[in-house]
Every structure is written in structure tokens, then in C-alpha cells.
Amino acid sequence: MTNRPTTLGELRKLPGYAPGAKRRSVKDELRANILQKLEAGEPLFPGIHGYEETVLPQIANALLARHNFILLGLRGQAKSRILRGLIDFLDQEIPYVAGCEIHDDPLAPLCRRCRDLIEEKGDATPIAWLPRDARFVEKLATPDVTIADILGDVDPIKAARSGRALGDELTIHYGLLPRANRGIFAVNELPDLAGKIQVGLFNIMQEGDIQIKGYPVRMPLDVLLVFTANPDDYTARGKIITPLKDRIGSEIRTHYPATVAEGVSITQQEAWVARDGGRATVEIPDYLREVVELVAFLARDDKRVDKRSGVSQRLPIACLESVVSSAEQRAVRNREARATARIADVYAALPAITGKMELEYEGELRGAENIARELIRSAVGRVFSHRLESANLQPVVQWFELGGELKVPENAPAADALAQLKKIQGLMDHIERLGVDGRSGPAGMAAAAEFILEGLWAHKRISRNEERGFHAERPKTPEPREQQPRPPRRQFN
Predict the structure, then answer these.
(1) pLDDT in tens, 439-481
(2) What residue spans define the domains of the chain?
(3) Which tens digit of pLDDT belongs to each residue from 5-47?
(4) Which of 132, 147, 356, 433 could be joined to 90 by an S-S link, Cβ 3.0–4.6 Å?
(5) Which CATH fold would you assign to the domain 8-253?
(6) What is the pTM for the complete model shown?
(7) How many CB atoms lie within 10 A of CB 94?
(8) 122-125, long-range: CB within 8 Å, 24+ apart, which pairs?
């Protein structure tokens, strides 16, 4: 806003701020702005994928109903990102009494300091403008959070410096919730707050005010409260107080991507794969992106992985970043300006997978790395079936059955790897099914051919191990049974 008012008198001359004008609460402000976005057909939460038909309409309903709400979901479901995106529904800036800790409305001040200042200076009271980014206050709930952190408490130092009695309202040190006045207050992992802290939120949830310990003062704050929680904790058996749960207007469930395509789009948006200033350009084939995403999908359905903890979307994001790093490292070592990620790079990204899975007892016995390898193999098998279902790969299988073996070193230059792979009869005839042709260069062609071999191994049509690489297990010929002398027959009289 240009030529913004700097005093209360100048502010009162603006439309909507004149004496007697109806004041708009933060929930009314959010409601009006979201209606405007809906009418203009603008996306409500740019960058949030997979929630267009489920979560986002429910959030819009909650805001239109002026509800405080909670997002329930497992880790890595964009809950915090959604809450931070709520600031886009606030006005660009709002006026407040300059120097006020709780950003008091100049036309309806709450704190004693602002009331005294306006009474003393009148229309000359200085006004400042608060941008919407500063109207979002977020707190991660931990067991050590105190009621003073959230609401406030007496400040002996302020009392001593000002020469006031401890019971004076001007000696209050405001907590995070009052400092979120005229904005949004978000609490992540709400059930982790101690019970007495949850009780301290009752008033603000129902009556719209808070009571600060030791002061006979009620402050009707203007604030939207939003929360996140894990569904297992947000139950009668969990750590949430039922009366607080009853006061939350809307309960909205988040979820993981419903389709691989949605997951790929999220991972592509969030993963750091465009390595600016790198020594090599790394390309990621579409089929490999699907493999990385399917690892997370399969892990979420695996009985050896803890369902209560979930498998975060950070798993495919971190995995894809590691895949690119592995391919980049290989290209730099071989002095190649262009590289294509290979299936071997997915196995090299195991450390980005194992740390993001909480295992059940059976999984712990098996080991995180072994489970991750099995998930990659299963993911390769599914992508292989989808893309090469009708391909006749029997000539490739026969090449191995006739005694052929191939081991492609992980750090082999693309040209060397391609030269070795071309020796396998019929293999290169099918790389076009993966979107690869001669224009893809040696790196792209080698990556596609190696993926086909990995898919054959995933379907148990050929074998693979660390020592021999890809090969075919020859059926064992049965050993001749040793001729044992027959026992004499018993004669019966």
C-alpha cells in the first residue's frame, strides 16, 4: 500500500476504519479471501498435489465455516506445509499500534499499554503495518512446553525496570498465543502437549479469550487455531484430552499419494535433482522415477514395516536425490559431461531408504537393508511388467541359458557398459519400449538395457549375484544313486 497512514487519525480517514465501522475478524478475513480465490478459479494451495479432491475441499469448508481445525495424518503428508500455506488467505498487511507485542487493532486495543497510549496521544498515536508473513506463529509441541510459553506469565525484570508492582497488567510477558493475535496460531503434534497445557487452550477454543496466570484480566484474542497430530495419538487411548478434541471445529484426514503418478509429481517437485554448477548433467529416465516411487508404495503395504509410523514421502525424495548423486559421481570419475541414472544408482541410494522405515519385529530380524533391496527388486518387477509386458525377451534369456554371463561394474563408463550389453542377443531391440532410442546416447541406452536385465532377474527368468553378475542357473543333474546290496529276503515256512 502506498502512502500508508502512520497515525491513528490518518487511519480513521480510510474506508473501513472510520469510527463506527464494523471490524472484521481474522476468520472473516480468511473467509472473504478464500471465497475470492474460489470465484477467480485460483489454486488454493499451489504446490500441494494429490489432495485436490479430498483434503483441500475440506480445508476450504472449515475456513468458510470459521472453524479451528486439525490435520490428522502420518509423517510426510504435507501437514505443516498446508498450515503455512494458510497465510496466502490473509490480507497483504494490516495496521496495528506501533510497538505492540500482540499487534493490537488501533480501533479496538486489548492490552493496557495500547489503551493508555491511545488515551494519551489520541489521533497522534503511531501506527505500523504488519505483513501477512508475520501473522503466522508456529509451535512444535514437546512435553517440556509450559503454560507460560503458550499464554504468558509475570515478568519480574520488566516490573523491576519499570518500577511497577508485579500485579500490574503492564508487567505481563506475553506467550506465543497472544503474540499470534489477529493471525494464525499453529501447533504441530498437539497430543505431545502436556495435559495441563491442553486445558489452558479451553478458553481460547470456546470463549475466544485467555486468562494469564496471576492477573485478573481476560483478553478476547482474534486468532485462528490450527493443529496437526498423528491419528494414533488423537484417540481416547492416546494423549489428547477429550474436552479439547470436542472444541476443535473440523477434523481433516490427510493421506499419502493415491497413485504412483501423483507420487512422481510430488517427488519431482520437491527433490533437488537440477544440480546447478555441477560438472555433469544427469538425466533421470521416467521408468526409474517410477521405480523410486514404487519403493515407497510397496513399503507402505509391507507387513514388516510399521503402519503406525508410516513411510514418509521424504523417502522417494531423498532416494531420488541420492540416485542423481550416484550418477553424478560416476560421470565425474569417468570425465563424462552427460550421465543417465541407472538401476545400480537406486541400490547405491539404500542409505536414503533404510533410515525412513520403522520396522516391525519380523522386519528387524530380516534387516532394513535386505528389506530395502527386496522392495527395489519388487518395484523393478512391477515397472518391467507394465512397460515390457508384451516384449519377447526369450532370446535374451536363451543367451544366458547357453552359458552367457555379464557383470557391469557400477562405475563403468557408459560407452564400455553399452559395448558389453550389446553382446546379448536381442537385448537392444526392446529399449524403445522404455522411451529410449539412439538419440539418448550411450548413457541412456546402457541404462535402459541394464534395467531390462534387472527386470528379468526380478521375475526370476535369469539370476544375478555380486560375483558373477547376470547369469542363468544351470539345472543340477541328479547324482547317481549308490548301488546298495539288497538285503536277503526272509523266508517264511
Answers:
(1) 889 999 999 999 999 999 999 999 999 888 999 976 655 555 5
(2) 8-253, 260-471
(3) 999 999 998 888 877 777 889 999 999 999 999 999 999 999 9
(4) 132
(5) Rossmann fold (3.40.50)
(6) 0.87
(7) 21
(8) 122/8, 122/9, 123/7, 123/8, 123/9, 123/12, 124/7, 124/8, 124/9, 125/7, 125/8, 125/97, 125/98
